[in-house]
Amino acid sequence: xxxxxxxxxxxxxxxxxxxxxxxxxxxxxxxxxxxxxxxxxxxxxxxxxxxxxxxxxxxxxxxxxxxxxxxxxxxxxxxxxxxxxxxxxxxxxxxxxxxx
Length: 100
Known about the structure:
By secondary structure, the chain is an alpha+beta fold.
């Protein structure tokens, strides 16, 4: 993959204003919030930030693992089917469409 993104690893961090975000050693990457600030569920922002950082940090290793499993076990229908589906999802391009 030829992705351009902020260097890993990413970590979840709570900022001074109470918001949670994702950052690496050098940069703040994003701030995590829930949609309705008046009815915010406590703990959800930290859980979301932790999930995003874990997913991003493990993405390349899990993709390589799935590709290797499909290559090593081509005669296993389950591994081939599940592995190819996981690989396709991992390589899927995200195309944001504005909410009008």
